[in-house]
Amino acid sequence: MKFNIKNTFSDVRHLALLTSLISISLLGTGCKEKPVSVQEKYENTAEVVVPVEKEVLEEETDSSVEASEPSQKSDKNEDSLSSVDPENGTAKSSNGGVMEILLTDINVIDGDTIQGLDESGKKVKVRMIGIDAPEIGQPMSTESAEELRNCIGGENRGLLFIDTNIPKDKYGRTLARVESAEIDCNQQQIEKGMAWFYAGSGEDIVGEYNDTYNQAHDYAQDNQMGVWAMDLEKPWDYREKNK
After folding, report:
1. Angle ∠(190,126,132) on CA atoms, nearest 5
2. What percentage of the chain has pLDDT greater than the value 70?
3. Are 102 and 117 in contact (CB under 8 A)?
4. Which three-class secondary structure state does DSSP give residue 42?
5. How, if at all, do strands 123-128 and 174-180 pair?
6. Angle (CA) 113 129 240, round 5°
7. Residues 151-209: pLDDT tens digits?
8. 10 Å Cβ neighbour count for 120?
9. According to DSSP H, which parts of the chain are helical?
10. Confidence at residue 44, expressed as pLDDT on a 0 to 100 scale
11. Secondary structure of the chain: what % helix, strand, coil (to 5)?
């Protein structure tokens, strides 16, 4: 009887020890993983999302700046655009109803007619006001044209002064006073006897230069210069006969 009680007690102790070991093992296993709170999950997610949103914002800002630049450049180009068209009676600058046009690449046609390019590159044919030179085929026509070339100079440039009230003649030619190196070529043609003073159908074409051109005319006639040195038919009479 004593032997059985002792064995039973020993079994109970073994069972208690086994139960304790199992409990300790379960507790150790449960402590290996630390629980993650909802707040920590939110913070970890925010750390990933915020930089992405910042990059997108920077890209949108850069693209909006780039998109606005072409319109600004276009406005500048439109503002910088300008043209000079003496054929339509417009000019870069004017003073008291007189247009000033720079003519380049001038070609002398005869003693009172030239042709060249304005600042926009358009071809302009000019009839010099207040003068009438010998027509091609008349005596002195070659000498008159050569004298005008000398006045224009080797650079083939001249400044046109155009009355805005009468910018053209009936043939569509620009009516102008021509200056080169500050020399009035219209006046010089008269002074050297290479053209007659001629106001056309109205002296208002010459305007304030009437007296100056008249004096040049008298000087050339008194000194028998150029066309005054011979009995030469006036060009307006020559044109009338050869219509």
Report:
1. 30
2. 58
3. no
4. helix
5. parallel
6. 70
7. 999 999 999 999 888 899 989 999 999 999 999 999 999 999 999 998 765 445 577 88
8. 13
9. 2-30, 38-80, 141-152, 185-191, 210-222, 235-241
10. 47
11. 50, 20, 30
